[in-house]
Write a structure and sequence with these properties.
This protein is mainly β. The chain is built from two helices and nine strands; from the N terminus they run ββββαβαββββ. A hairpin with a 2-residue loop joins strand 1 and strand 2. The longest helix is centred in the middle third of the chain and has 9 residues.
């Protein structure tokens, strides 16, 4: 699986006044008609817990020049850090934060959630709006494989909608 070297995205979402975002490598177009996209979120992440309550998510396609965003959204935890602090952010449908630094983005409405028992859940999503910049070289997993995630993949919070306690 490691040899696949997927391109990376940042997923953002909001529920009420709470915003969240994380670095994601599991994502794909999943239907042509109707248009659908799928994103898999780690159950260990704050973004997963906020996403359970959210109706929409944003996805931001990272370029090979976006390592700093990958570090921010991949190594920090939203349990203790405002990952959006100091970033230029627009608010879109259902309060979804969209990063101005990423000209290639989508806001999507959740149509289904699949939890088949693994460490990630799949969000089936319908595009609502988007932005497209110039063609780009995507940031790949191999470019950030030295990063240490904000949470280990086997961490779980009980109940899953609560923030983790102080580390």
């Amino acid at each position: 699986m490691r040899s696949l070297d997927p391109n990376l995205i940042v997923v953002t979402t909001a529920a009420g006044e709470e915003r969240a975002g994380c670095l994601v490598g599991f994502h794909s177009q999943s239907s042509i008609a109707p248009e659908r996209y799928a994103v898999w979120l780690s159950k260990a992440n704050h973004t997963y817990r906020v996403g359970l309550r959210a109706t929409h998510v944003g996805i931001h396609f990272l370029t090979d020049a976006d390592r700093a965003l990958a570090v921010r959204f991949g190594t920090l935890t939203g349990d203790t850090t405002d990952k959006f602090a100091g970033l230029d952010v627009d608010t879109r449908s259902a309060g979804v934060p969209v990063l101005r630094a990423c000209p290639n983005w989508l806001v999507l409405r959740r149509t289904a959630l699949l939890d088949e028992g693994g460490d990630h859940v799949c969000l089936a999503l319908e595009p609502v709006s988007g932005g497209a910049g110039r063609p780009f070289t995507p940031l790949r997993l191999s470019a950030v494989d030295d990063l240490t995630p904000g949470h280990d993949n086997d961490e779980r919070h009980d109940p899953p909608t609560e923030r983790a306690g102080p580390g």
